[in-house]
Amino acid sequence: MPALTRRQLIQTALAAGTGVTIARFAVGKGEAVSETPAPVERHLELHNTHTNETVSVVYRIGAEFQPRALESLRHVMRDHRNNTAHDIDLPLYDQLHDLAVAAKCEPRFEIISGYRSPESNATMAARPGSGVARHSLHMEGRAIDVRLHGCSCADLRDLALAAAKGGVGYYARSDFVHIDTGRFRTWNG
Predict the structure, then answer these.
(1) Side-chain half-sphere CA neighbours of 68 within 13 A
(2) What is the pTM (predicted TM-score) of this model?
């Protein structure tokens, strides 16, 4: 197997996550030096279109989620109808971040709907033609309806479909994409 270049070593280490030690040779000396790359920071900006609140935080550094950042994200994703909040499934944040990276955009999202209380969800689902599921993952903090700045919703949908990390609903008329951490499935609303 051919030797990896320094760039390939760094790319491999970054792809593998944090905590990886990279060995390199000091220029002209031939002695091994060990480097540990800085943990990768994951950032999100969420703007709630109903409350006009925006939160911009580093929610994860390496493998460590940041409790204060998570609390801020939880608050901005609350049910605006009755001001109730719920814990959000952490992989949902990673899905959003990864989709922004795949779209080559800053991770700046508009929230159309985040957490929904059972009462709000029941009211919405009772409206004829609403398309709201009676057992929506929004009630479990496992779903979000969003737009990504700098990326069309059709492109965001395509990226989410390619990632296949959960449910993907595309609402072309309302111009948003539903992303969730449930089983992979897709629909148009």
Answers:
(1) 3
(2) 0.79
